[in-house]
Every structure is written in structure tokens, then in C-alpha cells.
Amino acid sequence: VSFVAGAASAANSSIATTSNGAVADGVATNTVQVTVRDASNNILASTAVTVTLTGTGGAVVGTIAGTTDASGQISIDLTDTTAENLTVDYTVNAVAGAGDTAVSFVAGAASAANSSIATTSNGAVADGVATNTVQVTVRDASNNILASTAVTVTLTGTGGAVVGTIAGTTDASGQISIDLTDTTAENLTVDYTVNA
Fold this sequence. Notes:
By secondary structure, the protein is an all-beta fold. Helices cover 0% and strands 52% of the residues. The protein contains no helices and 15 strands. The strands form four sheets. Strands 2, 4, 5, 7, 8 and 9 form a six-stranded mixed sheet that branches. The chain has a three-stranded antiparallel sheet with strand order 1-3-6, with no helix packed on it. Strands 10-11-14 form a three-stranded antiparallel sheet, with no helix packed on it. Strand 12 (150-156) and strand 13 form a beta hairpin. It starts with 7 loop residues before the first strand and ends with a strand.
């Protein structure tokens, strides 16, 4: 005699994150895996199921139809272009599943092309003590800010300002500020590089 698994039970099925921490570039993937079981907790191997995932952010999620493997599992790859933490829910055959899982997308390497510089204080007296301040905002290739990230900023001026290479860590807004002094009354243009 043979006893077979019953219909999929969303209450007894589960979801887990199997790969995490992908760069938010729209290409790299995090993976979640749904294990499908019936009301008696039997796995549903080689069974057609529909899994629907919804996230709290901008991840590419939706409805995916597929077939479970021998362990009653189906894996779904997620991409994102925003560095963020997501909570992923699921349904099995239109019934909400029990629990959820978290995935995180992180910013990529610093992109000098997407980073920017601005003067935040200006008009200091040229006495070698008073300072003007420039602020560099560091972003990756997808325009995500790089918070709490070690960066090297190099500033060069057209005059005699005290400039050079400054290593530091960006704040929560992906910014680092640099104070400049001068002993010559003049107008300066300040350039910068991020990680050379």
C-alpha cells in the first residue's frame, strides 16, 4: 500500500534565506527558499506549487510557479537596486504562509562618478586658522549612499589652500567633511577623488 502527501499547507510550509548580503546593483541575487509541506508535515516533492513573495522595499518580487525538488523545496532569487533590508513573505497556492524571512541588499563599491562635492561653509578669513568646509557625499554605481564606509578623499586646489589626502569614514548620510585653511585671500576650485 502507498500513502501519499496531501495538498500543500501554507501553515506547515516555511521560508528561509539561503544566501544574503548581495550588492544592490540589480544583478546580484539574494536567495530565499520555501519548503512545502502538507497538513501532516509531509514534504511535497516533485509537486507543482505557486509561491508569491512580497517585500517591504523595492526588491523584484512577484509570483513564481515551479516544482519542488526531492526535499519539497523551491528557491527564488531576488534582486534590488536599493541598499535596504527587506522582509519577505510568501503564499502557497494563494494561502498566506506562516512566518517570513529577512534579506539585506548592500551598497557596492564607491563610485567617484556618482559621488559629489559641495561647499558647506565659505568665506573664512585667510589667516591659516579659520576654515572653509567642503563635504563629499559618497555613492555607489546604483546611487546608494555608502554609510559607515572607509574612504580616501584627495583634494587639490588652484591656489595655496592646505589640501591633500584625507582618510576617514562616512557618516550615516554617506558624507565626510573636510576643513580647509589658507593664508592667501583668493578663490579656489577644489577637486576630489574617492579611492583614487
